[in-house]
Specification:
There is one protein chain. The protein has 544 residues and is α/β, with parallel strands linked by helices. The chain has 20 helices and 18 strands. A six-stranded parallel sheet has the order 7-6-8-9-5-10. A hairpin with a 7-residue loop joins β14 and β15. α5 crosses α12. The longest helix is centred in the C-terminal third of the chain and has 20 residues. 36% of the residues are buried.
Amino acid sequence: MNLLFKLEELRKLDVISMLEVEFVRFLMSIIPDEKEEVLLAAAACVHAQINGHVCLDIENLKEEYVFNDAKSGIKLTKSIKQQWLQNLEESELVSRGNELKPLVLENGRLYLHRYWKYEEELSDWLRKKSASQNAISEESNKVINSLFPAKADLFETNWQQIAVCLSFLKDLLVISGGPGTGKTYTVLNIITAHMLAHPEQPMRIALAAPTGKAARRLADSIEEGKKNLPEELRSKHEIPTSALTVHKLLGSGYRSSHFRFNEENKLPFDIVIIDEASMLDITMWVRLIRAIGPNTKLVVLGDKDQLASVEAGSILGDICRGENSFSKSVASSIEQITGSPVPVAKLKSDIVDSVIFLTKSYRFGEESGIQKFAEAVNNSDDDTAIALLNDPKFTDLTWLQPTDENINSVIQEYAVQHYNRYMNEPANKRLSASNHKKMLCAVRRGRFGVDTLNQFAERVIRDERQFIKSDEWYPGRIVMSTRNDAMLKVRNGEIGLCDGLEESKILFEGENSFPVSVARLKNYEPAYAITIHKSQGSEFDDVA
């Protein structure tokens, strides 16, 4: 009872949520006299899951305090962690996964049973799917080489061509690359190659992404890329240009957690392509692989260095370890087809043959400050990152100290002046123009959070335009939907612009976009500033 009281106090201090408290209460209903160390570790496990971790890695915990917060009042010493592990080993609430119990302890890691089972299922599927190797026909060989003519620099490996080659050799392909490395271009070539290689039968291909915004970006990129294909190819083959959210691909309704396509009813496609896979948590990964049939290829794209999903699991980042290298068998096949030798992996692992990294950026030049800064951040090289920010020769980077004056200037440029610019555009171009600039925040609350910056921006815009302060809605107000709405066909994360007419309506950026009355919109927030997580799948010309 003392622990429950302590947890309730921590909940009131916003250190933990109600979930941790209720899970401990549930465990105590099973074993009322369970040791406090076990219950506290269980609460910490739930807290870790809420914060994006599949498990609580007790042995490697580096946080100084339980729940990573000094307000918990409990320091995580080595002896406390050892006590946790010993008591968990002895607890009736914990198994090794072979019994149905609330918690699973494995190699010093504590899981909620469901997430342990998800991890086991996903890792087994990845191993099996990546283990097989297909033979490539002479026709497929010709197609691959016809799409990628020989380059002048014979010593530069064309990883895009090798990715297309792997899409024939393997039934699972994970393509990771940073912005501008040609992931979508590579996918377009994969689609084209498989269509050309199977002229006798129409290829059934599905395009999807975790969010509506990311799905639209994928569809737009494929549509744009088609323009560069030969006219003969475009006229003879119907390349798909529509993309769904992963939820919709799997047949989920807005209000239902049931998926029409699952382990018993597989997806009816030859190739399934998923973009922005860093956003997929472990639950969606498992739901996806359950619906992938034995004869369906799964092609996954994403940036391993991008933020992981908000929910539990950084699956793409965990899969994409190491660098471009392959088993002897696959490396030999690649060289025979493309003529390019590739590195042989030192460690034997089937998954290495299904993962490829696109390393050449076509978006940034060699002297781009953004490109160099991103590399320094990804390499955890803070000295280089700070030096780049201070170097005046990189005009695409500007570093401002967080003074009140600088924060005000950012809000003026990226919200107030930006508002004036896009409102001068024709009405039908304002929504797209509103995405030219954006403030991105790491946090929601606090001085540099989304809430504070949006409040400040709206206050200044209202004052300058002399809008009536009691009227919430005004012309050109940027808002973001914060929940899926089945009736309005608006999805979480979609941005819209208010027309400000007598009966105000909002035009959202969705595929089924139509004006939505502000009176019907229930879940939204201003979007002059958005969180970095919410920005994924978007592109802006200029960000602060």
